[in-house]
């Protein structure tokens, strides 16, 4: 187990920045969330210039965006924001690993799935918690400013 | 916490457990491990760790890039590479049949394979041919 | 602004209620989604392990090209189909051999040699390709491999049991033979005419023929749809795919001091040729000293030095065969330089060394020579 821990898998990041698409989803809606996610993807690529990290993130988003949007649209009342975020983080990690597998055609990489999903679950919760708090702040700020 | 949260977390936990179970299916014997190097999904090199002097450094040039790995006893790690990001350098050293070192930009995969003879009909350490 | 948010909230609530009326929980969508993913992953993960079931194996050995030829096929095809493919492979090998051997008077190569300095000779498509490949490898190796070495091999008469050489050729004889060596004096025209511009020149494809033939046989097997095969042309090994269970083939490298079949070490390859040139394989003994059948085209003499054998691992057996010969002529240091410019080619050098056991040097992943500890 411990040998797994220097975790940073190629391109598989903890995904704390996913707080922005999630926030956009909560505040504005699916279309905006997709826009924010794509913008972030492009920005990250332009700044870091690593097409492989891009492919990984794209693979992750391909799964996580539809899932989080579906959960948000249909089950917003039964699921808290951290829960949606945890689900979407898990999907993000699976997508990333699938992208790596398809790039390397090495199925053994899937052995990392449980660990990455577990770590992803924790960060997903943090991201969801952060997004929830931020949304509350922003919404109260907006409400206070309106007459 | 809303009403369905617990259920979602439980399902996620079960999924992780299931994934762990499914992927842990193959555990090689403790026989000789050999390092398998593949580029773009094709095995380009395979060498037994026991045949390699400790501290052996190997330079690879997958697709024009450069990766250097060091074999020390029973572990393999990447020590230098010219790939963007350098993620492969941060990956955990290989010590067992589990896990891989991947350098995505160079489509390079390193993994260890045990010669455990899982298929007794074709023992892995039998030599198929001798070149002379 | 507040109204907008309120309206948005109301809408969302309605939508949410609408869903829960149907009794579908968010957790259930999530579950379905992940179960599908998990099954796909598990499937990908297992699929490679389960290869090799329902496989048929057919193997055949035969004498041709002055050596033992062994072809083993592993495939899902029926045994009858595999037999037919083996028939085709051995027929192909026999026909190529009869075209490429300089010792068979009717072969394309023998006809070219007989007309050297006179006229271009039309040869078969395959012969023309073999000669073109050998000329390309001559240029690639800077002349360390030379297909026009024929006059030198003829001079030393190694392997000619009926007419053995009893004394060393003198310098004058070697000079004369060397004057006729030079692949830059050979041309292949696009319509498959081969011409040697100086009378007495001789093409000897001995350093490339087995590699070329195994390449052709490998292509034949691939075209026939065989996924996994081993072609062994007298120690020139070509692997097609990997073993039927997905693991790489394990190929031993002959121990230079021991009986044939006893390896000094082994390597694992998939879809690659493993070809060795060794001083111990064919030689002539004159005055108690052994002269190997591998010549340095620059000196016209059998190779000397510490190298006992060179094994080349490459995708292209034709190149592997020629390069193993060239590396023997070049020696360890110069081979190392040449290897740097050859991506995808790896080599294992067995050298006399200082102790009782030979020393091994290997390039692993092209760059750098790594000493293999024994």
Structure commentary:
The complex is a heterotrimer of chains A (147), B (132) and C (374). With 147 residues, chain A is mostly helical. Chain A is 75% helix and 0% strand. In chain A, helix 1 packs antiparallel against helix 2. The longest helix of chain A has 33 residues. Chain A is globular. Chain B is α+β, with helices and mostly antiparallel strands and 132 residues long. Chain B has a domain of 82 residues: N-utilization substance G protein NusG, insert domain (mini-chromosome maintenance (MCM) complex, domain 2). Chain B contains 2 helices and 8 strands, in the order H-E-E-E-E-E-H-E-E-E. In chain B, the strands form 2 sheets. Chain B has a 4-stranded antiparallel beta sheet with strand order 2-1-7-6. In chain B, strand 4 and strand 5 form a beta hairpin. Chain B starts with a helix and ends with a strand. Chain C is globular and about 90 Å long. With 374 residues, chain C is α+β, with helices and mostly antiparallel strands. Chain C contains 9 helices and 18 strands. Chain C starts with a helix and ends with a strand. The chains are: A mainly alpha (147), B alpha+beta (132), C alpha+beta (374). Chains in contact: A-B, A-C, B-C. Chains B and C meet through helix 1, strand 1, strand 2, strand 3 and strand 8 of B and helix 2, strand 7, strand 8, strand 9 and strand 10 of C.
């Amino acid at each position: 187990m411990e040998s797994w821990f220097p975790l940073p898998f190629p391109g598989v990041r903890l995904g704390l920045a996913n707080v922005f698409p999630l926030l956009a989803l909560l505040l504005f809606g699916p279309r905006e969330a997709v826009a924010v996610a794509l913008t972030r993807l492009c920005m990250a690529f332009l700044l870091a210039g690593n097409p492989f990290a891009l492919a990984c993130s794209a693979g992750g988003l391909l799964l996580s965006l539809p899932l989080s949007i579906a959960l948000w649209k249909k089950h917003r009342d039964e699921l808290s924001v951290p829960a949606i975020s945890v689900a979407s983080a898990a999907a993000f990690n699976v997508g990333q690993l699938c992208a790596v597998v398809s790039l390397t055609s090495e199925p053994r990489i899937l052995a990392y799935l449980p660990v990455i999903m577990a770590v992803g679950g924790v960060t997903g919760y943090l991201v969801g918690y952060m997004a929830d708090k931020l949304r509350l702040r922003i919404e109260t700020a907006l409400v206070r400013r309106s007459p | 916490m809303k009403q369905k949260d617990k259920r979602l977390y439980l399902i996620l936990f079960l999924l992780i457990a299931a994934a762990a179970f499914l992927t842990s299916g193959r555990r090689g014997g403790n026989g000789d491990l050999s390092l398998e190097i593949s580029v773009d999904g094709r095995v380009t090199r395979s060498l037994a760790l026991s045949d390699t002097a400790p501290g052996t450094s190997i330079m690879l040039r997958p697709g024009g890039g450069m990766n250097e790995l060091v074999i020390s006893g029973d572990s393999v790690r990447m020590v230098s590479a010219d790939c963007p990001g350098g993620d492969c350098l941060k990956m955990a050293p290989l010590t067992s049949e589990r896990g891989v070192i991947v350098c995505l930009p160079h489509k390079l995969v390193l993994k260890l394979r045990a010669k455990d003879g899982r298929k007794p009909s074709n023992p892995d350490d039998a030599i198929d041919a001798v070149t002379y | 602004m507040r109204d907008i948010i309120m309206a948005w909230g109301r809408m969302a609530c309605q939508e949410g209620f609408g869903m829960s009326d149907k009794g579908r929980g968010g957790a259930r969508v999530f579950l379905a989604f992940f179960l599908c993913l998990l099954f796909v992953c598990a499937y990908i993960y297992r699929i490679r392990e389960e290869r090799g079931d329902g496989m048929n194996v057919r193997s055949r050995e035969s004498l041709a090209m002055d050596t033992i030829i062994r072809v083993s096929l592993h495939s899902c095809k029926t045994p009858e189909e595999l037999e037919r493919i083996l028939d085709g492979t051995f027929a192909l090998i026999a026909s190529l051999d009869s075209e490429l051997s300089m010792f068979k008077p009717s072969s394309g190569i023998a006809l070219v040699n007989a007309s050297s300095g006179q006229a271009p000779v039309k040869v078969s498509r395959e012969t023309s390709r073999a000669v073109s490949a050998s000329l390309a490898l001559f240029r690639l190796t800077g002349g360390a491999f030379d297909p026009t070495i024929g006059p030198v091999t003829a001079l030393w008469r190694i392997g000619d049991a009926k007419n053995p050489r009893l004394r060393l050729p003198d310098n004058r004889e070697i000079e004369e033979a060397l004057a006729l060596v030079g692949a830059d004096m050979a041309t292949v025209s696009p319509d498959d005419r081969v011409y040697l511009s100086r009378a007495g020149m001789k093409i000897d494809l001995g350093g490339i023929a087995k590699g070329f033939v195994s390449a052709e046989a490998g292509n034949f097997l691939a075209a026939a749809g065989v996924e996994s095969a081993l072609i062994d042309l007298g120690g020139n090994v070509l692997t097609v795919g990997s073993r039927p269970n997905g693991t790489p083939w394990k190929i031993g490298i002959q121990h230079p001091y021991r009986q044939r079949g006893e390896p000094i070490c082994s390597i694992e390859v998939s879809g690659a040729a493993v070809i060795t040139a060794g001083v111990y394989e064919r030689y002539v003994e004159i005055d108690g000293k052994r002269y190997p059948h591998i010549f340095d085209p620059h000196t016209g003499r059998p190779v000397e030095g510490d190298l006992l054998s060179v094994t080349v691992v490459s995708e292209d057996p034709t190149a592997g065969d020629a390069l193993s010969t060239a590396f023997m002529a070049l020696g360890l240091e110069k081979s190392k330089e040449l290897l740097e410019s050859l991506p995808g080619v790896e080599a294992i050098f067995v050298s006399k060394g200082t102790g009782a056991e030979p020393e091994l040097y290997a390039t692993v992943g092209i760059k750098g020579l790594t000493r293999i500890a024994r």
